[in-house]
């Protein structure tokens, strides 16, 4: 199946936005192996199910469907959670397996992780994921080859390149755009950022969203929607769960995880009440039996498989 080759029509129906969730546990934090080593994960108390249920309740209260980028580790440990999210009508995308930084992988390793995720998630939901988000936005100028691998492996869109200094590139486009690659067309869907005299500001999620007054966020979304451009937001289950102090984290990691954490539920609930949101897959018009109201031609649906537990899948 190919990605849609044109962007949704610009009309008044296009004033919609995109809410996403990185489905991971509280201990899935990049670059803190010295504090939370991978070998210890299985022995740590998981809160992803109860935290995600709180997110689902907030989404359900506003009757909003989101895109969940699911970590393979979580899908393997909690297939029933992924199945429930899918049954509620949310899109299931992929977030890598062990929260690995993609620019630290070889292309062959990345390809294996992608195929592993497709098998696992399709075995749970019966639907092949077509969207990917790299942990910590780790597809950037260090590894442009990763976009080609995504397209070669059948992914239709990516949400991993962030127009920010340090972890991305401020010159990246700040709105959805098509990448014409050797392997085919791949849509890139970046998160919301604000332009400031000091550079771009991460307004779409994390500490950046939590620390902004809601009025500033609403004003920027209205500005984008007036141009028929969607704003993409991202959240994590741990942001709505009980506060957790992790001993030994560097200051910058503590700030990223904890700054403004009290505002998460309020900001999310107000966004969902004030604006229209749909899953990314629906926005791009992928696999819809009826024509997309946002102007894309219907695609041929992926043939669904019978769902089965993720841990029955064997990888070699």
Question: What does this 3D model show about the protein?
Answer:
This protein is an alpha/beta fold and 316 residues long. The chain has helices at 48-61, 72-77, 79-87, 107-125, 145-152, 206-211, 214-226, 251-258, 264-274, 280-283, and strands at residues 18-23, 67-70, 91-94, 131-132, 157-158, 177-181, 184-188, 194-196, 199-201, 232-235. It has one domain: Glycoside hydrolase/deacetylase (TIM Barrel, Alpha-Beta Barrel), CATH 3.20.20.370. It is built from ten helices and ten strands.
Describe, in short, the structure shown:
By secondary structure, the chain is α/β, with parallel strands linked by helices. Helices cover about 30% and strands about 10% of the residues.
Secondary structure blueprint with pairings:
Elements: E1 18-23, H1 48-61, E2 67-70, H2 72-77, H3 79-87, E3 91-94, H4 107-125, E4 131-132, H5 145-152, E5 157-158, E6 177-181, E7 184-188, E8 194-196, E9 199-201, H6 206-211, H7 214-226, E10 232-235, H8 251-258, H9 264-274, H10 280-283
Parallel strand pairs: 1-2, 1-10, 2-3, 4-5, 5-7
Antiparallel strand pairs: 6-7, 8-9
Helix pairs in contact: 4-5
CATH architecture, please? Answer: Alpha-Beta Barrel
Helix amount:
25-40%
CATH superfamily: Glycoside hydrolase/deacetylase
- Gross morphology: globular
- Alpha-carbon Rg, integer: 18 Å
Number of helices: 10
Q: Quick one: biggest sheet? A: 4 strands, parallel
Distance between the termini: 26 Å
What class, by secondary structure content? alpha/beta
State which percent range the strand residues make up: 5-15%
Number of strands: 10
CATH fold node name:
TIM Barrel
**CATH class call:** Alpha Beta
Strand order of the largest sheet: 3-2-1-10
Q: What is the mean pLDDT?
A: 88
Number of self-contained structural domains: 1
